[in-house]
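Bug #77: duplicate submission created two jobs. Keeping one. Sequence:
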Amino acid sequence: MLPPHDRVSLAHKIYTLLCEWGIEKNIFSITLDNASSNKSFVDILKTQLNLKKALVSDGDFLHIRCCAHIVNLIVQDSLKEIDDVVFKIRDCIRYIRGSQVRKQMFLGCCKQVSLESKMGLKQDVPTRWNSTFHMLQSAIYYRHAWYSLELSDNNFKHCPSPSEWEKV
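Kept job's structure:
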């Protein structure tokens, strides 16, 4: 959709498309994230559709908040409690994965502490809580290899401390 992306333009465009497709009387709900502009846009759309008597219960159920977005917001807010450690782990993973030599050193450390290296270090996408969970899970699994790497690589300086691992 071409700009502008304000609430009035969004409502007009969606309403026009619903009418063009002939489905304006078949809409029960729209799932969106919790942005305030989305609430405003849905309020305008609801008014337009109610003028055509097109909504069940006058559109009381039109705007459904995206559960995945809500869960992501909750988890991201919770992760703020350990932000410093999460950043540190991201940096460590980037460091290890940043060169083939460091990857090999890390694999050697895994062998030294009797860890399988099949799981692999996972890098997260910070806006997806489940990827951060998988990153932290893999980091916890390899924490003893990280301790070993810290002893053998003078440039590996950000290994979490035992108390930071407890937070994770």
